[in-house]
């Protein structure tokens, strides 16, 4: 399962509820479902051994914050976000110990995958440029920089609901533009 497919997959019927109820078997099940994909994702940025540590940290944080999980929501977006943040944190901690040249490039799944990612990144940049400034700013803070909606709202001086609405509208517009070639 790729990180993208993981985001689209529905959660186990009661997995989040069991996590919220401190059911340790739910954490094991969550690890069995999402762990291998997160490990592969993290290995694009850090070594295999370091990926073990990063993924372990992600599931530790999931368990620690289990009571704040939203019922009936797929935990995958949170897991991918945490994995990305922890991989970045790991690289920052090691920055003083490791030369930039020794940090591995993200590994492509195939020869064409790298080119496809570059093309997609270009399409995303072009699509972002079509957003109204308020929406673009919210997407940059929440999606690209990883701030919570509350943190973005505080930084922008607007209500959290405004940030949620702007991000939602922006993501819909971006999806239409990128997937459907919408030129609006």
Q: Can you summarize this structure?
A:
With 184 residues, the chain is mainly α.
Structural class label: mainly alpha
Architecture (CATH level 2) name of the largest domain: Orthogonal Bundle
- Give the helix level as a range of percent: 55-70%
The CATH topology of the largest domain is given as Rna Polymerase Sigma Factor, Chain: A
Order of SSEs: HHHHHHHHH
Discrete helix count = 9
CATH superfamily annotation of the largest domain: RNA polymerase sigma factor, region 2, helix turn helix motif
Specify the overall morphology.
globular
Radius of gyration: 18 Å
Report mean pLDDT, rounded to a whole number.
80
CATH class of the largest domain: Mainly Alpha
Beta-strand residue fraction: under 5%
How would you characterize the largest beta sheet?
none
DSSP, total strands: 0
